[in-house]
Amino acid sequence: MRMYDIIEKKRDGQALTTEEINYFINGYTNGEIPDYQVSALLMAIYFQDMNNEERAQITKAMVESGDQIDLSDIAGIKVDKHSTGGVGDTTTLILAPLVASVGVPVAKMSGRGLGHTGGTIDKLEAVPGFHVEINNNEFIDLVNKNKVAVVGQSGNLTPADKKLYGLRDVTATVNSIPLIASSIMSKKIASGADAIVLDVKTGAGAFMKELKDAKALAEAMVTIGNKVGRNTMAVISDMSQPLGNAIGNALEVHEAIQTLQGNGPDDLTELCLTLGSQMVVLANKAETLEEARLKLQDNLNNGKALEQFKVFLKSQGGDTTVVDHPDSLPQATYKVELPAKTSGSVANIIADDIGTAAMMLGAGRATKESTIDLAVGIVLHKKIGDTVDAGEPLLTIHSNSEEVEEVKEKLYKSISITKEAVEAPTLIYDTVTK
Ligand code: URA
Ligand code: CA
């Protein structure tokens, strides 16, 4: 088999065989096929697309390029949730204990944040003592015992994806549905979940800015998941503005606690109930979405979800006093309000730019090596559609530096206020099932 022929075939719009896909994925992972040939093939895929069979095969080949996590020693159907990324997305912190509280085993592998989106592990590390350095056996034992545990990503998961993603990044081939879908799904499948709920974001702060593109990505991922034997569905949700009110690590832990107490922001609570109900049904812990939602709602109201959060934090070394005394979370020295310059309705809160402002405060990593400040971030007091009077605070900046002028300027530019009434954006656009 020759890489040249594979490139030519895809260039001319033909479908690649399983053997051809395996040949190029294995050859590239081993370093036998050079970057320039794979670059050419990626560009051909970008223009010619892949059919559903090819998409499933490339995903499988990437899964098999490295370690695969075996969760078979955990009783029950393991359901994972994956978000395509957004700003202030606190859902994992809430969903993990919430669905565990109704008996769904949550064996969560998470990452750290890069750029303006936060990582679940960074957020959890804002709880004093909490750590994710547990070995595979401890991880499995904890899930069997407590129904929930979170571990950092293992070293050699989907090496083919790591190499390909790096190459796509410098060859203008990131933005391709078959390549994005296979990249995301390969990581989820290698992490061992039996079933997968995808939260595909759309809007200004999302990877897929347009609803039709988010839908195409959701359909591609759902098709791949089901083709390779994992029950997969997707929810398409709004990321035109940040989710919930808090953006920043400790601030989002606080927000998660409030939500688990039943006092969270409406959008965050609703998204958690939507995604959580799907997880509960896929795990066979309820017959219908309505029954699942009632169970979750009950556990938010009766304290069981919050209790599960305490058990989870404690089992991984975390100080559970943060739950009843959120003041014991890391606190920023300066709290600066951003007053509205005019009266009217909030028309835009550009999620990307708010994320960047939080990163400027130190809440996110500019590069992989940056250290982050767990205490800092932004708390919104107004969301799109809310009315505001001139001088009323739009948000509070939590900073450890007295100098916040540049951040304030950035924030003013990312929030717009109009005289006309504005409707709050739709939160859940669609669901995609097999
Ligand atoms: N996230 C991924 O993991 N892969 C992509 O290709 C795009 C976003
Ligand atoms: Ca949030």
Automatic annotation (TrEMBL):
Highest taxon of source: Bacteria
Documented EC number(s): 2.4.2.2
PROSITE patterns xref list: THYMID_PHOSPHORYLASE (PS00647)
Keyword Mitochondrion: no
Gene3D superfamilies given in the database record: Nucleoside phosphorylase/phosphoribosyltransferase catalytic domain (3.40.1030.10), Pyrimidine nucleoside phosphorylase-like, C-terminal domain (3.90.1170.30), Transferase, Pyrimidine Nucleoside Phosphorylase, Chain C (1.20.970.10)
Coiled-coil intervals, chain numbering: 279-306
Subunit text: Homodimer.
UniProt xrefs under PANTHER family: THYMIDINE PHOSPHORYLASE
Name of this chain's protein: Pyrimidine-nucleoside phosphorylase
Organism: Virgibacillus massiliensis
Lineage start: Bacteria, Bacillati, Bacillota, Bacilli, Bacillales
